[in-house]
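Retro notes (design track)

What went well: tokenization of the new backbones is finally stable.
What didn't: we kept losing track of which sequence belonged to which structure.
Fix going forward: every design gets posted as structure first, then sequence, in one message. First example under the new rule, 336 residues:
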């Protein structure tokens, strides 16, 4: 029996190891690496599922989240004010918030939240008026319904003042979230609401209704809805946050290209949604998913946000000008 020298012995052992590995793993051309399981993430909506959220549901239906390394669970909030509480308690990873709610939450607890993406790039707030109100300053001496939220007064004042009227002469009445029935019944001459929701619903019933958008009467074109997380989550789980943003950007880009697919995804996940009404609302809001001056879905523009922050304080939503540098992380949305 021949004696193997050390060098030849090492070569023989290495060759045997390669054969063993090939036998265990199969042919090298077909061997695959098991992908890592996607990270679970809970996203809380700002309101019950509606057309604005269609791109979110489409991103999950298409698997955009899993391709980005995230298994996204979409949760409607128990009430509209619960999203902030869930985030701060660590029971949600991300949430959609109205930008005014974000500013107020930061005023109560500075540095507790940070926005990483714009969902809707323009204000949705408006004053919806009877046909007889031909312009906002015509509300002087007449009844205008407000929900009672701090932002309602700012929206009404900005729109009336932006048309040269005196907001102090408008008779405000609190009607809660009953703008549609209050206007249809003629109980008020106008009411604050969202042009993409109440505005669309009322226009379908009464085409002569007037819709005065806040950014057409003095307000900057700020992003109404933003994706928010906590600084701790962004710091400790950056890939989860960035993966979620990437998935949502794909979902909303696909929604713009194929709105009907987004409505199908929305109604499949939220069966109580009226598909026809949701399609009308989605058609109205589609242009607001991208910046007015052009740009990508999700973009956070600091110059626009600084103008918004000044307006936010001027009309009394916040006591001081929001700290834009602390509240927004535009680089997350800009990452490709």
């Amino acid at each position: 029996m021949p004696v193997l020298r050390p060098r030849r012995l090492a070569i023989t052992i290495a060759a045997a190891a390669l054969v063993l590995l090939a036998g265990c793993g199969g042919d090298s051309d077909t061997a695959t690496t098991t992908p890592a399981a996607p990270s679970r993430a809970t996203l809380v909506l700002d309101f019950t599922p509606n057309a604005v959220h269609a791109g979110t549901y489409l991103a999950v239906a298409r698997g955009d989240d899993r391709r980005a390394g995230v298994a996204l669970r979409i949760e409607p909030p128990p009430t509209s004010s619960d999203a902030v509480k869930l985030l701060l308690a660590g029971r949600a990873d991300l949430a959609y918030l109205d930008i005014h709610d974000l500013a107020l939450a930061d005023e109560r607890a500075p540095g507790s939240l940070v926005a990483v993406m714009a969902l809707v790039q323009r204000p949705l707030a408006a004053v919806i008026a009877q046909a007889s109100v031909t312009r906002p300053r015509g509300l002087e001496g007449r009844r205008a319904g407000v929900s009672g939220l701090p932002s309602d007064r700012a929206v009404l004042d900005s729109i009336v003042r932006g048309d040269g009227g005196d907001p102090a002469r408008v008779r405000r009445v609190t009607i809660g979230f009953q703008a549609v029935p209050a206007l249809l019944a003629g109980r008020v001459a106008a009411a604050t609401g969202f042009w993409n929701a109440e505005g669309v619903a009322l226009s379908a019933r009464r085409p002569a209704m007037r819709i005065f958008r806040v950014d057409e009467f003095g307000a900057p074109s700020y992003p109404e809805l933003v994706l928010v997380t906590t600084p701790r989550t962004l710091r400790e789980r950056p890939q989860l946050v960035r993966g979620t943003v990437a998935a949502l950007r794909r979902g909303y880009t696909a929604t713009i290209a194929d709105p009907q697919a987004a409505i199908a995804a929305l109604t499949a996940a939220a069966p109580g949604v009226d598909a026809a009404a949701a399609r009308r609302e989605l058609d109205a809001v589609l242009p607001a998913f991208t910046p007015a001056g052009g740009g990508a879905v999700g973009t956070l523009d600091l110059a626009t946000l600084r103008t918004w922050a000044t307006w936010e304080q001027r009309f009394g939503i916040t006591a001081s000008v929001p700290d834009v540098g602390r509240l927004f992380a535009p680089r997350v949305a800009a990452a490709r």
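Added context from the reviewer: Residues 1-34 have pLDDT under 50 and may be disordered.
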